[in-house]
Amino acid sequence: MRIDQFPAIRQFNFADTLREHSRSRPNMIASVDGPERLTYRQLDCRVNKVADGLRKRGVGPGDRIMWVGQNSARVMELLLACAKIGAQLCPANWRVSPPEFADLVHRFDPKIVFWQDIEVGDIYHVNKETWKTHDRQWVQHDGTGADCYEALIESGEDHDPETFVDADTPLLAIYTAAFDGAAKAAQLSHNAILLQALLSARGQAIDETSSYLMSGPMFHVGVLMGGFAAFVAGGRCVYVRRVDAAELLDLVEREHVSHAYLPGPVVDQMMKLDAAGKRDLSSLFPSRDLKDWAPPLAIPEHAPMRHHMGQYGQTELMGSVVLAWLGGSGAGRPGPFLQIRLLDEAGREVPDGETGEIAARGPLVMNGYYGADAVNQARSADGWYRTNDLGRRNPDGSLSFVGPKATMIKSGLENIYPAEVEACIRALPEVSDVCVIGVPDERWAQSVKAVVVLNDTAALDEHAVIEHCRHAIASYKKPKIVAFAPALPRLPNGFVDRAAVDAGWGGGGYPKVG
Protein backbone atom coordinates (compact mmCIF):
# COMPACT_ATOMS: atom_id res chain seq x y z
CA MET A 1 0.00 0.00 0.00
CA ARG A 2 1.36 3.41 -0.93
CA ILE A 3 1.45 5.99 1.85
CA ASP A 4 -0.52 8.49 -0.29
CA GLN A 5 -3.55 6.21 -0.19
CA PHE A 6 -4.26 6.97 3.46
CA PRO A 7 -6.12 10.27 2.90
CA ALA A 8 -8.72 8.42 0.82
CA ILE A 9 -8.86 5.52 3.27
CA ARG A 10 -9.52 7.89 6.17
CA GLN A 11 -12.33 9.80 4.47
CA PHE A 12 -15.87 9.31 5.80
CA ASN A 13 -18.90 11.30 4.68
CA PHE A 14 -22.63 11.21 5.34
CA ALA A 15 -23.26 8.56 2.66
CA ASP A 16 -20.67 6.25 4.20
CA THR A 17 -22.99 5.93 7.20
CA LEU A 18 -25.62 4.39 4.91
CA ARG A 19 -23.07 2.14 3.23
CA GLU A 20 -22.08 0.71 6.61
CA HIS A 21 -25.67 0.40 7.86
CA SER A 22 -26.43 -1.58 4.69
CA ARG A 23 -23.78 -4.08 5.76
CA SER A 24 -24.21 -4.11 9.53
CA ARG A 25 -27.99 -3.48 9.79
CA PRO A 26 -29.24 -4.81 6.45
CA ASN A 27 -32.67 -5.95 7.64
CA MET A 28 -33.42 -3.26 10.21
CA ILE A 29 -36.10 -0.75 9.24
CA ALA A 30 -34.57 2.58 8.28
CA SER A 31 -37.54 4.47 6.90
CA VAL A 32 -41.34 4.48 7.20
CA ASP A 33 -43.36 6.74 4.93
CA GLY A 34 -47.01 5.79 4.61
CA PRO A 35 -47.20 2.20 3.35
CA GLU A 36 -43.54 2.23 2.27
CA ARG A 37 -41.15 0.56 4.71
CA LEU A 38 -37.49 0.28 3.77
CA THR A 39 -34.69 -1.63 5.41
CA TYR A 40 -31.23 -0.09 5.40
CA ARG A 41 -30.21 -2.35 2.51
CA GLN A 42 -33.31 -1.37 0.52
CA LEU A 43 -32.70 2.31 1.30
CA ASP A 44 -29.12 2.01 0.05
CA CYS A 45 -30.38 0.41 -3.16
CA ARG A 46 -32.85 3.24 -3.78
CA VAL A 47 -30.25 5.89 -2.98
CA ASN A 48 -27.84 4.30 -5.47
CA LYS A 49 -30.53 4.51 -8.13
CA VAL A 50 -31.39 8.10 -7.26
CA ALA A 51 -27.71 9.07 -7.39
CA ASP A 52 -27.28 7.37 -10.77
CA GLY A 53 -30.46 9.00 -12.06
CA LEU A 54 -29.17 12.41 -10.95
CA ARG A 55 -25.83 11.80 -12.68
CA LYS A 56 -27.63 10.92 -15.90
CA ARG A 57 -29.45 14.25 -15.63
CA GLY A 58 -26.16 16.09 -15.37
CA VAL A 59 -25.77 16.52 -11.61
CA GLY A 60 -22.17 16.28 -10.47
CA PRO A 61 -19.83 17.41 -7.68
CA GLY A 62 -20.60 20.93 -6.52
CA ASP A 63 -24.02 21.10 -8.19
CA ARG A 64 -27.20 21.99 -6.34
CA ILE A 65 -30.71 20.55 -6.27
CA MET A 66 -33.79 21.79 -4.43
CA TRP A 67 -36.78 20.12 -2.78
CA VAL A 68 -40.00 22.14 -2.62
CA GLY A 69 -42.48 19.86 -0.92
CA GLN A 70 -43.68 18.66 2.43
CA ASN A 71 -42.03 16.01 4.58
CA SER A 72 -41.10 12.81 2.80
CA ALA A 73 -38.58 9.97 3.01
CA ARG A 74 -37.48 11.18 -0.41
CA VAL A 75 -35.81 14.19 1.19
CA MET A 76 -33.45 11.84 3.03
CA GLU A 77 -32.97 9.76 -0.15
CA LEU A 78 -32.03 12.86 -2.13
CA LEU A 79 -29.69 14.08 0.60
CA LEU A 80 -27.91 10.71 0.69
CA ALA A 81 -27.73 10.63 -3.11
CA CYS A 82 -26.16 14.10 -3.07
CA ALA A 83 -23.71 12.82 -0.45
CA LYS A 84 -22.65 10.03 -2.82
CA ILE A 85 -22.26 12.44 -5.74
CA GLY A 86 -20.74 15.44 -3.95
CA ALA A 87 -23.76 17.65 -4.67
CA GLN A 88 -25.88 19.77 -2.34
CA LEU A 89 -29.60 19.64 -1.43
CA CYS A 90 -31.77 22.53 -0.27
CA PRO A 91 -35.15 21.59 1.26
CA ALA A 92 -36.96 24.89 0.73
CA ASN A 93 -39.81 26.27 2.80
CA TRP A 94 -42.96 25.11 0.99
CA ARG A 95 -45.04 27.68 2.84
CA VAL A 96 -43.55 30.66 1.01
CA SER A 97 -45.50 32.80 -1.44
CA PRO A 98 -44.95 32.42 -5.23
CA PRO A 99 -42.75 35.57 -5.41
CA GLU A 100 -40.64 34.34 -2.49
CA PHE A 101 -40.31 30.91 -4.14
CA ALA A 102 -39.13 32.50 -7.38
CA ASP A 103 -36.53 34.43 -5.39
CA LEU A 104 -35.29 31.29 -3.56
CA VAL A 105 -34.85 29.42 -6.84
CA HIS A 106 -33.07 32.39 -8.40
CA ARG A 107 -30.71 32.74 -5.46
CA PHE A 108 -29.82 29.05 -5.12
CA ASP A 109 -29.77 28.31 -8.88
CA PRO A 110 -30.41 24.56 -8.62
CA LYS A 111 -29.86 22.23 -11.55
CA ILE A 112 -33.01 20.25 -10.65
CA VAL A 113 -36.03 21.25 -8.56
CA PHE A 114 -38.16 18.47 -7.06
CA TRP A 115 -41.62 19.89 -6.51
CA GLN A 116 -44.89 18.71 -5.03
CA ASP A 117 -48.30 19.41 -6.56
CA ILE A 118 -50.64 18.61 -3.69
CA GLU A 119 -51.03 21.66 -1.41
CA VAL A 120 -47.79 23.18 -2.71
CA GLY A 121 -48.24 23.26 -6.49
CA ASP A 122 -49.43 26.87 -6.72
CA ILE A 123 -45.94 28.25 -6.15
CA TYR A 124 -44.80 26.23 -9.19
CA HIS A 125 -47.79 26.81 -11.48
CA VAL A 126 -47.82 30.59 -10.93
CA ASN A 127 -44.20 30.80 -12.11
CA LYS A 128 -44.02 27.99 -14.68
CA GLU A 129 -44.01 30.27 -17.72
CA THR A 130 -40.97 32.05 -16.33
CA TRP A 131 -39.23 28.73 -15.69
CA LYS A 132 -39.30 27.89 -19.41
CA THR A 133 -36.65 30.52 -20.03
CA HIS A 134 -34.18 28.83 -17.70
CA ASP A 135 -32.01 25.77 -18.26
CA ARG A 136 -33.38 23.98 -15.22
CA GLN A 137 -35.07 20.60 -14.78
CA TRP A 138 -38.32 20.13 -12.85
CA VAL A 139 -39.26 16.78 -11.35
CA GLN A 140 -42.66 16.29 -9.70
CA HIS A 141 -42.18 13.98 -6.76
CA ASP A 142 -45.89 13.19 -6.37
CA GLY A 143 -46.63 12.79 -10.07
CA THR A 144 -46.43 10.14 -12.77
CA GLY A 145 -44.75 10.05 -16.15
CA ALA A 146 -41.27 10.84 -17.43
CA ASP A 147 -40.72 13.88 -15.21
CA CYS A 148 -41.57 12.28 -11.88
CA TYR A 149 -39.46 11.01 -9.00
CA GLU A 150 -40.10 7.30 -9.52
CA ALA A 151 -39.16 7.62 -13.20
CA LEU A 152 -35.83 9.08 -12.10
CA ILE A 153 -35.28 6.05 -9.86
CA GLU A 154 -36.21 3.66 -12.65
CA SER A 155 -33.64 5.32 -14.89
CA GLY A 156 -30.86 4.64 -12.39
CA GLU A 157 -28.84 1.54 -11.63
CA ASP A 158 -28.15 0.02 -8.23
CA HIS A 159 -24.44 0.66 -8.52
CA ASP A 160 -22.28 2.65 -6.13
CA PRO A 161 -18.98 3.87 -7.60
CA GLU A 162 -18.01 5.23 -4.15
CA THR A 163 -16.77 8.50 -5.54
CA PHE A 164 -14.43 10.37 -3.21
CA VAL A 165 -16.38 13.20 -1.56
CA ASP A 166 -14.65 15.44 0.97
CA ALA A 167 -16.67 15.44 4.20
CA ASP A 168 -15.94 19.13 4.71
CA THR A 169 -17.79 20.16 1.54
CA PRO A 170 -21.38 21.47 1.70
CA LEU A 171 -24.16 18.88 1.58
CA LEU A 172 -27.25 20.55 3.07
CA ALA A 173 -28.46 24.11 2.47
CA ILE A 174 -31.10 25.65 4.73
CA TYR A 175 -32.55 29.07 3.99
CA THR A 176 -32.53 31.54 6.84
CA ALA A 177 -33.21 35.26 6.96
CA ALA A 178 -29.72 35.72 8.45
CA PHE A 179 -31.05 38.56 10.67
CA ASP A 180 -31.24 41.14 7.87
CA GLY A 181 -34.53 40.05 6.33
CA ALA A 182 -32.97 38.74 3.10
CA ALA A 183 -33.16 34.99 2.53
CA LYS A 184 -29.76 33.28 2.45
CA ALA A 185 -28.89 29.59 2.13
CA ALA A 186 -26.62 28.44 4.98
CA GLN A 187 -24.43 25.64 3.60
CA LEU A 188 -23.78 22.80 6.04
CA SER A 189 -21.12 20.16 5.53
CA HIS A 190 -21.15 16.36 5.90
CA ASN A 191 -19.02 16.80 9.02
CA ALA A 192 -21.42 19.33 10.55
CA ILE A 193 -24.34 16.95 10.04
CA LEU A 194 -22.48 13.90 11.38
CA LEU A 195 -21.14 15.67 14.46
CA GLN A 196 -24.48 17.27 15.28
CA ALA A 197 -26.11 13.85 14.86
CA LEU A 198 -23.75 12.35 17.44
CA LEU A 199 -24.39 15.23 19.83
CA SER A 200 -28.17 15.00 19.39
CA ALA A 201 -28.17 11.22 19.73
CA ARG A 202 -26.43 11.51 23.09
CA GLY A 203 -28.60 14.36 24.35
CA GLN A 204 -31.90 12.82 23.24
CA ALA A 205 -30.95 9.22 24.09
CA ILE A 206 -31.34 8.00 20.51
CA ASP A 207 -30.01 4.56 19.51
CA GLU A 208 -30.79 1.80 17.02
CA THR A 209 -33.99 0.93 18.88
CA SER A 210 -35.37 4.46 18.54
CA SER A 211 -38.23 5.46 16.27
CA TYR A 212 -38.07 9.16 15.42
CA LEU A 213 -41.19 10.94 14.15
CA MET A 214 -40.30 13.43 11.43
CA SER A 215 -43.26 15.63 12.23
CA GLY A 216 -41.66 19.08 12.14
CA PRO A 217 -40.93 20.74 8.79
CA MET A 218 -37.78 19.35 7.17
CA PHE A 219 -36.68 22.80 6.04
CA HIS A 220 -35.78 23.49 9.70
CA VAL A 221 -32.78 22.07 11.56
CA GLY A 222 -34.94 21.53 14.66
CA VAL A 223 -36.43 18.29 13.37
CA LEU A 224 -33.42 17.41 11.21
CA MET A 225 -31.12 17.21 14.25
CA GLY A 226 -33.16 14.35 15.71
CA GLY A 227 -33.79 12.72 12.34
CA PHE A 228 -30.09 12.70 11.49
CA ALA A 229 -29.32 11.35 14.96
CA ALA A 230 -31.75 8.46 14.44
CA PHE A 231 -30.25 7.71 11.03
CA VAL A 232 -26.63 7.81 12.22
CA ALA A 233 -27.50 5.64 15.24
CA GLY A 234 -29.19 3.04 13.03
CA GLY A 235 -32.73 3.75 14.23
CA ARG A 236 -35.78 4.41 12.12
CA CYS A 237 -37.26 7.64 10.82
CA VAL A 238 -41.06 7.81 10.52
CA TYR A 239 -42.19 10.49 8.08
CA VAL A 240 -45.49 12.36 8.07
CA ARG A 241 -46.27 14.66 5.14
CA ARG A 242 -47.66 17.37 7.38
CA VAL A 243 -48.90 17.55 10.95
CA ASP A 244 -52.32 15.98 11.41
CA ALA A 245 -53.30 15.02 14.96
CA ALA A 246 -55.31 11.92 13.96
CA GLU A 247 -52.53 10.58 11.74
CA LEU A 248 -49.97 11.22 14.44
CA LEU A 249 -51.98 9.15 16.90
CA ASP A 250 -51.97 6.24 14.44
CA LEU A 251 -48.24 6.50 13.79
CA VAL A 252 -47.23 6.78 17.45
CA GLU A 253 -49.23 3.68 18.30
CA ARG A 254 -48.31 1.58 15.25
CA GLU A 255 -44.62 2.48 15.00
CA HIS A 256 -43.94 2.71 18.75
CA VAL A 257 -42.57 6.20 18.23
CA SER A 258 -40.05 7.05 20.93
CA HIS A 259 -38.96 10.56 19.89
CA ALA A 260 -40.71 13.48 18.22
CA TYR A 261 -40.53 17.21 17.62
CA LEU A 262 -44.08 18.49 18.24
CA PRO A 263 -45.46 21.97 19.00
CA GLY A 264 -47.71 22.25 22.02
CA PRO A 265 -50.98 22.94 20.15
CA VAL A 266 -50.56 19.74 18.13
CA VAL A 267 -50.11 17.62 21.25
CA ASP A 268 -53.18 19.29 22.74
CA GLN A 269 -55.17 18.25 19.65
CA MET A 270 -53.87 14.69 19.92
CA MET A 271 -54.94 14.42 23.53
CA LYS A 272 -58.38 15.84 22.82
CA LEU A 273 -58.91 13.29 20.04
CA ASP A 274 -57.92 10.52 22.43
CA ALA A 275 -59.64 11.94 25.49
CA ALA A 276 -60.91 8.47 26.39
CA GLY A 277 -57.33 7.16 26.52
CA LYS A 278 -57.97 4.22 24.20
CA ARG A 279 -54.78 4.65 22.19
CA ASP A 280 -51.45 3.24 23.35
CA LEU A 281 -49.18 6.28 23.27
CA SER A 282 -46.89 5.06 26.04
CA SER A 283 -43.81 4.80 23.79
CA LEU A 284 -43.87 8.60 23.41
CA PHE A 285 -45.97 9.83 26.35
CA PRO A 286 -45.65 7.40 29.28
CA SER A 287 -47.83 9.69 31.39
CA ARG A 288 -51.21 10.86 30.11
CA ASP A 289 -50.91 14.11 32.05
CA LEU A 290 -47.82 14.96 29.92
CA LYS A 291 -45.70 15.68 32.98
CA ASP A 292 -42.89 13.84 31.19
CA TRP A 293 -43.07 16.09 28.12
CA ALA A 294 -40.76 19.07 27.58
CA PRO A 295 -42.12 20.84 24.48
CA PRO A 296 -41.38 20.80 21.64
CA LEU A 297 -39.27 17.67 22.19
CA ALA A 298 -40.86 14.40 23.24
CA ILE A 299 -37.93 12.32 24.43
CA PRO A 300 -37.39 9.53 26.99
CA GLU A 301 -37.16 10.21 30.71
CA HIS A 302 -33.52 9.05 30.81
CA ALA A 303 -32.36 11.40 28.03
CA PRO A 304 -29.78 13.93 29.34
CA MET A 305 -31.60 16.76 27.56
CA ARG A 306 -34.88 15.81 29.23
CA HIS A 307 -33.93 17.39 32.54
CA HIS A 308 -31.69 20.18 31.22
CA MET A 309 -33.48 21.83 28.30
CA GLY A 310 -31.43 25.03 28.12
CA GLN A 311 -29.60 25.48 24.84
CA TYR A 312 -28.31 27.91 22.25
CA GLY A 313 -27.83 27.38 18.55
CA GLN A 314 -28.45 28.56 15.01
CA THR A 315 -29.16 27.05 11.62
CA GLU A 316 -25.69 28.32 10.66
CA LEU A 317 -24.23 26.09 13.41
CA MET A 318 -26.25 23.02 12.37
CA GLY A 319 -28.58 23.50 15.30
CA SER A 320 -28.04 23.52 19.05
CA VAL A 321 -24.38 23.71 20.06
CA VAL A 322 -24.41 25.13 23.60
CA LEU A 323 -26.33 22.72 25.81
CA ALA A 324 -27.41 22.75 29.44
CA TRP A 325 -27.07 18.97 29.72
CA LEU A 326 -23.33 19.40 29.18
CA GLY A 327 -23.15 21.29 32.47
CA GLY A 328 -23.08 24.76 33.90
CA SER A 329 -25.88 27.29 34.10
CA GLY A 330 -27.85 29.36 31.59
CA ALA A 331 -27.73 27.83 28.11
CA GLY A 332 -24.94 25.49 29.24
CA ARG A 333 -21.57 24.65 27.74
CA PRO A 334 -20.45 24.24 24.13
CA GLY A 335 -20.27 20.70 22.76
CA PRO A 336 -16.93 19.03 22.06
CA PHE A 337 -16.78 20.17 18.41
CA LEU A 338 -16.91 23.94 18.87
CA GLN A 339 -15.08 26.86 20.42
CA ILE A 340 -17.02 29.91 21.60
CA ARG A 341 -15.74 33.39 22.28
CA LEU A 342 -17.67 36.52 23.27
CA LEU A 343 -16.35 39.52 21.36
CA ASP A 344 -16.84 43.26 21.34
CA GLU A 345 -17.24 45.28 18.13
CA ALA A 346 -13.47 45.50 17.73
CA GLY A 347 -13.05 41.73 17.96
CA ARG A 348 -11.65 41.70 21.51
CA GLU A 349 -12.84 39.03 23.95
CA VAL A 350 -14.98 40.65 26.63
CA PRO A 351 -14.40 39.94 30.36
CA ASP A 352 -16.49 37.29 32.05
CA GLY A 353 -19.88 38.62 33.08
CA GLU A 354 -20.03 41.21 30.29
CA THR A 355 -22.16 40.90 27.17
CA GLY A 356 -20.49 40.28 23.84
CA GLU A 357 -21.28 38.86 20.43
CA ILE A 358 -21.16 35.07 20.32
CA ALA A 359 -18.42 33.98 17.92
CA ALA A 360 -17.82 30.35 16.98
CA ARG A 361 -15.10 28.24 15.39
CA GLY A 362 -15.13 24.54 14.50
CA PRO A 363 -16.54 21.96 12.07
CA LEU A 364 -20.16 22.63 13.10
CA VAL A 365 -19.97 26.13 11.62
CA MET A 366 -21.52 26.47 8.17
CA ASN A 367 -19.42 26.74 5.01
CA GLY A 368 -20.92 30.19 4.46
CA TYR A 369 -24.09 31.45 2.80
CA TYR A 370 -24.39 30.46 -0.84
CA GLY A 371 -23.70 33.37 -3.18
CA ALA A 372 -23.23 35.94 -0.40
CA ASP A 373 -19.50 36.64 -0.44
CA ALA A 374 -19.73 40.09 1.14
CA VAL A 375 -21.82 38.86 4.07
CA ASN A 376 -19.57 35.82 4.52
CA GLN A 377 -16.52 38.05 4.63
CA ALA A 378 -18.09 40.40 7.15
CA ARG A 379 -19.22 37.57 9.41
CA SER A 380 -15.83 35.79 9.39
CA ALA A 381 -13.23 38.53 8.90
CA ASP A 382 -11.33 37.87 12.13
CA GLY A 383 -11.24 34.08 11.78
CA TRP A 384 -14.33 33.52 13.91
CA TYR A 385 -17.91 33.21 12.73
CA ARG A 386 -19.89 36.14 14.10
CA THR A 387 -23.36 34.84 15.00
CA ASN A 388 -25.06 38.26 15.36
CA ASP A 389 -26.26 36.98 18.76
CA LEU A 390 -25.29 38.28 22.18
CA GLY A 391 -24.15 36.16 25.10
CA ARG A 392 -22.59 36.39 28.53
CA ARG A 393 -20.02 34.12 30.22
CA ASN A 394 -21.17 32.92 33.64
CA PRO A 395 -18.78 32.61 36.63
CA ASP A 396 -18.52 28.84 36.04
CA GLY A 397 -17.52 29.33 32.38
CA SER A 398 -20.88 28.33 30.93
CA LEU A 399 -22.87 30.64 28.66
CA SER A 400 -26.11 32.56 28.85
CA PHE A 401 -27.85 33.72 25.70
CA VAL A 402 -28.78 37.38 26.05
CA GLY A 403 -30.65 37.83 22.76
CA PRO A 404 -30.26 38.59 19.07
CA LYS A 405 -28.48 41.77 18.06
CA ALA A 406 -31.42 42.20 15.69
CA THR A 407 -34.81 41.48 17.24
CA MET A 408 -36.52 38.24 16.22
CA ILE A 409 -40.16 37.20 16.70
CA LYS A 410 -40.93 33.59 17.60
CA SER A 411 -44.41 32.39 16.61
CA GLY A 412 -44.94 28.71 17.29
CA LEU A 413 -41.85 27.03 15.80
CA GLU A 414 -41.24 29.76 13.22
CA ASN A 415 -38.62 32.51 13.34
CA ILE A 416 -39.91 35.79 11.91
CA TYR A 417 -37.61 38.73 11.27
CA PRO A 418 -39.26 42.16 11.54
CA ALA A 419 -37.05 43.60 8.77
CA GLU A 420 -38.59 41.23 6.23
CA VAL A 421 -42.20 42.03 7.18
CA GLU A 422 -41.42 45.75 7.36
CA ALA A 423 -39.97 45.69 3.84
CA CYS A 424 -43.16 44.05 2.62
CA ILE A 425 -45.41 46.67 4.25
CA ARG A 426 -43.25 49.57 3.03
CA ALA A 427 -44.01 48.46 -0.53
CA LEU A 428 -47.52 49.85 -0.03
CA PRO A 429 -47.57 53.39 -1.45
CA GLU A 430 -49.81 54.60 1.39
CA VAL A 431 -47.20 53.68 4.05
CA SER A 432 -44.73 56.27 5.28
CA ASP A 433 -43.14 54.30 8.12
CA VAL A 434 -43.58 50.98 9.92
CA CYS A 435 -42.22 49.02 12.86
CA VAL A 436 -43.05 45.33 13.29
CA ILE A 437 -43.01 43.91 16.81
CA GLY A 438 -43.91 40.69 18.58
CA VAL A 439 -46.75 40.67 21.09
CA PRO A 440 -47.37 37.88 23.64
CA ASP A 441 -49.71 35.12 22.47
CA GLU A 442 -50.91 32.41 24.86
CA ARG A 443 -51.11 29.80 22.09
CA TRP A 444 -48.12 30.61 19.85
CA ALA A 445 -45.76 32.49 22.25
CA GLN A 446 -45.86 35.59 20.04
CA SER A 447 -47.97 37.12 17.30
CA VAL A 448 -46.85 39.66 14.72
CA LYS A 449 -48.06 43.24 15.13
CA ALA A 450 -47.36 46.08 12.71
CA VAL A 451 -47.36 49.70 13.85
CA VAL A 452 -47.94 51.69 10.67
CA VAL A 453 -47.58 55.38 9.85
CA LEU A 454 -49.55 56.47 6.77
CA ASN A 455 -48.82 59.28 4.34
CA ASP A 456 -50.72 62.48 5.15
CA THR A 457 -53.56 61.93 2.68
CA ALA A 458 -53.57 58.13 2.58
CA ALA A 459 -56.40 55.86 3.68
CA LEU A 460 -55.62 52.25 4.54
CA ASP A 461 -57.22 49.81 6.94
CA GLU A 462 -55.90 46.83 8.90
CA HIS A 463 -57.41 44.29 6.51
CA ALA A 464 -55.65 45.79 3.49
CA VAL A 465 -52.25 45.61 5.19
CA ILE A 466 -52.75 42.01 6.28
CA GLU A 467 -54.01 40.90 2.86
CA HIS A 468 -51.10 42.59 1.12
CA CYS A 469 -48.67 40.63 3.30
CA ARG A 470 -50.63 37.39 2.90
CA HIS A 471 -50.04 37.46 -0.86
CA ALA A 472 -46.47 38.79 -0.81
CA ILE A 473 -44.81 36.68 1.91
CA ALA A 474 -45.43 33.42 3.74
CA SER A 475 -48.77 33.57 5.53
CA TYR A 476 -47.31 32.88 8.99
CA LYS A 477 -45.20 36.04 8.69
CA LYS A 478 -48.12 38.40 8.08
CA PRO A 479 -49.22 40.65 10.95
CA LYS A 480 -52.23 39.46 12.90
CA ILE A 481 -52.71 42.95 14.29
CA VAL A 482 -52.15 46.34 12.66
CA ALA A 483 -52.12 49.57 14.63
CA PHE A 484 -51.88 53.03 13.09
CA ALA A 485 -49.81 55.82 14.60
CA PRO A 486 -49.11 59.46 13.65
CA ALA A 487 -45.35 58.81 14.05
CA LEU A 488 -42.87 56.31 15.47
CA PRO A 489 -40.57 57.12 18.40
CA ARG A 490 -36.96 57.50 17.35
CA LEU A 491 -33.55 57.42 18.98
CA PRO A 492 -31.06 60.32 18.74
CA ASN A 493 -29.31 58.53 15.87
CA GLY A 494 -32.53 58.56 13.85
CA PHE A 495 -33.34 54.85 14.14
CA VAL A 496 -36.75 53.67 15.32
CA ASP A 497 -36.76 53.17 19.10
CA ARG A 498 -38.02 49.57 19.16
CA ALA A 499 -38.08 49.44 22.94
CA ALA A 500 -40.40 52.44 22.97
CA VAL A 501 -42.62 50.87 20.30
CA ASP A 502 -42.79 47.69 22.39
CA ALA A 503 -43.70 49.69 25.47
CA GLY A 504 -46.35 51.74 23.69
CA TRP A 505 -47.99 49.02 21.64
CA GLY A 506 -47.80 45.91 23.84
CA GLY A 507 -44.65 44.27 22.52
CA GLY A 508 -42.90 41.51 24.44
CA GLY A 509 -42.34 37.79 24.83
CA TYR A 510 -39.26 37.75 22.62
CA PRO A 511 -37.30 34.48 22.67
CA LYS A 512 -34.69 34.08 25.34
CA VAL A 513 -32.68 30.98 26.14
CA GLY A 514 -30.39 30.54 29.12
Describe this structure in words.
Keywords: Plasmid. This is Acyl-CoA synthetase. GO terms for molecular function: acid-thiol ligase activity. With 514 residues, the chain is α/β, with parallel strands linked by helices. It is globular. The model has no long low-confidence stretch (mean pLDDT 92). The protein has helices spanning 6-10, 14-24, 40-56, 73-85, 98-108, 122-125, 128-131, 149-155, 190-204, 221-233, 245-255, 264-273, 373-380, 418-426, 462-472, 498-505; strands at 29-33, 36-39, 64-68, 88-91, 112-115, 137-140, 170-176, 184-189, 211-214, 236-239, 259-261, 297-298, 311-314, 319-323, 333-334, 339-343, 355-361, 385-393, 399-404, 409-411, 414-416, 431-441, 445-454, 481-484. Helix 3 packs across helix 4, helix 3 crosses helix 8 (149-155) and helix 9 crosses helix 10. The protein is built from 16 helices and 24 strands. The relative contact order is 0.09. Helix content is 31%, strand content 24%.
Radius of gyration computed on alpha carbons: 23 Å
Helix content: 25-40%
Distance between the termini: 52 Å
Summed over residues and divided by their number, the pLDDT gives a mean of: 92
Q: How would you classify the helix and strand content by structural class?
A: alpha/beta
CATH superfamily of the largest domain: ANL, N-terminal domain
What CATH calls the topology of the largest domain is Rossmann fold
The count of DSSP E runs of length 2 or more, i.e. the number of strands, is 24
- Number of separate helices: 16
Sheet with the most strands, sense and barrel status: 6 strands, mixed
Strand order of the largest sheet: 2-1-10-9-11-12
Low-confidence stretches: none
CATH architecture descriptor of the largest domain: 3-Layer(aba) Sandwich
* C-alpha geometry: globular
The fraction of residues in strands falls at 15-25%
Number of domains: 4
| CATH class group of the largest domain | Alpha Beta
